[in-house]
Predict the 3D structure of the following.
Amino acid sequence: MLKADIDGFIKLVEEADYVEAHEVMEDDWRDLKKEGRKKEAKYLQALINGATSLALFYIKKRPEPGERVWQVYLKNKYLFDELELFEKEKYHYVQTLLEERYEQKK
C-alpha cells in the first residue's frame, strides 16, 4: 500500500508552493523506484509532474515546457484507479486541486 507525504504535498499545492511540493514527494518516489514498485512510483511521478507543470506555468513563466510536463501527468494519473492508496480520498483531492489550478491558467 502506498503511503507518501500526501498531507505535506496537499498543503504546499494549496499554498501554490509548487516547487516545494515537487520536492516533498521526491524521496518517496525514489524509494518506490528502488523497491521496484513501478506503478506506485509512476503515480507519484504523475503528481510530481503536476506540481512541476504548475511551477513552470505560474512561477517560471515557461508555458511550453509546462504543457509538456502536464501531458506526462495526464498520461500517468490513470494509475490512481489501479493502486491501493492509504487515504485514497486525499490523492483524489490533490488531483482535483492540480487540475483546477491548471484550468485557471487559461
The two ends are 36 Å apart (CA to CA). Residues 38-59 form the longest helix (22 residues). The chain has a mean pLDDT of 93. The CA atoms of residues 7 and 90 lie 8 Å apart.
